[in-house]
Structures are given as C-alpha cells and as structure tokens.
Design goal:
Elements lengths: L4 H16 L9 H13 L4 H46 L2 E4 L7 E5 L3 E6 L5 E2 L8 E3 L4 E4 L18 E9 L3 E8 L2 E3 L2 E2 L6 E9 L1
Parallel strand pairs: 1-3, 2-11
Antiparallel strand pairs: 3-7, 4-8, 5-7, 6-7, 8-11, 9-10
C-alpha cells in the first residue's frame, strides 16, 4: 500500500532532524539539507521555523568540521612535539670519544653525556666501574676484530696478533671522578707486553 505523502514527509523530516542533531555532523550532507527544506515546506511550516531548522542544520555541519579540524590540529601538534623532543634529546646528549692518546690524562665531561672508550687490541680487559661510580657501563664492549689474511694491515696477518678494536660505552650518571683502567698481558702473537704497554688508564671527571 502506498504511503500518504504527508507520512513520507514526516518520516523524512524526522530523519533530517536526527542528522542535524548528530554531534559530529558526519551525516549532514547537501541531500539532508534538501530533504529538510522539502519536508518543512510540504508540511506547511512557516518561514521562521524553516529558517530556524536550517540554522540548526548548518550549525551541526560547523560542529562536525570543527571536530575534524581540532583532531587535525591535535595530531599535528603531537607530531611536532614528538619531533621536537627527539631533536632536543639528540641535541642535549653529547659524546666524548677516548682512545690510547688519552692515557694517564683527566678528561672533563658533562652530566648526562655519553663516553666511549676505544682501545685498539682484542687483548685489553677493562675493570668495570662499581655502581657507585660517576660512570655507568652500558654493557659488553663492541668488538671489531681484524682477522688475519694476506690483505690485512701489516702486523695483523698472523694468527694471534689480536688486531681490532674494542669499544666500551658509559653514561655520565653522577657528578664525580671515575678511573677507567684496562690491562693486558699479550701484545701480539707470542709477544708479551712490557710494563709500559700492559696497562691503560684515564680519569673521567663528570660535572654539571
């Protein structure tokens, strides 16, 4: 059975009102606007009421756009803050590189900075600072051995030469002095170390 035009208009009007009242305004479309105008006109609503309903409809659209804009702004701000935080972290964390040339010296570093000690022999063994020290070890050293081969540097072509680099990483976690000490007994293939080259030490002074 065909529905009365008035009933169809009432149903369309109710649906349009619901779309207008949608908090996000996501359902508000130009078709909804046409349906609203048609329904109000067919039911004989006066011009003021039609105008009021149209204002509600447009307000719902504006609210939906405002929500979308706010989400976009929040997302953009979050990305900028994250990028700024990462860049700031990289900018404020400096690294001090120590090698054999710093032997028996005192090196000053800032609190919170990074300290890397690289010694060029696989035979070095370091004494890890205690937990109360101003430097905190970041774990086992990074090993980069040079394997014996005809193409290896001179002095590294024989097995047992111990060529390569060991790198220990520390963080300057407290204010104070820490003595980094490394020792070795072998300085090459069947070669004993002398008193001069069997020990390495450097003092790191951490300050604010």
């Amino acid at each position: 059975m065909a529905r009365h035009p008035g009933a169809v208009a009432e149903t369309t009007l109710k649906s349009s009102f619901e779309e207008c009242r949608s908090p996000s305004g996501a359902k508000a479309t130009p078709r909804s606007l046409l349906d609203l105008i048609f329904s109000l006109s067919f039911l004989g609503r006066n011009r003021n009421e039609i105008s009021q309903q149209l204002r509600l409809f447009l307000a719902s659209i504006r609210r939906g756009l405002a929500v979308k804009r706010a989400k976009s702004v929040m997302l953009g701000s979050s990305i900028l803050l994250l990028m700024f935080g990462i860049n700031s972290a990289h900018a404020t964390t400096s690294t001090t590189n120590l090698t054999e040339k710093h032997a028996n010296k005192t090196v000053a570093v800032k609190l919170g900075s990074r300290v890397e000690l690289a010694l060029h022999s696989m035979y070095w063994q370091i004494t890890v600072p205690p937990k109360s020290a101003s430097l905190t070890s970041k774990g086992a050293p990074i090993l980069k051995p040079i394997f014996p081969s005809p193409s290896a540097p001179v002095g590294c072509r024989i097995a047992g030469s111990g060529c390569g680099t060991q790198t220990w990483i520390f963080s300057a976690s407290k204010v104070g002095l820490t003595h980094l000490v490394a020792t070795r007994t072998t300085c090459g293939e069947a070669m004993k170390c002398t008193a001069r080259n069997s020990r390495f030490s450097v003092t790191v002074k951490v300050s604010r």
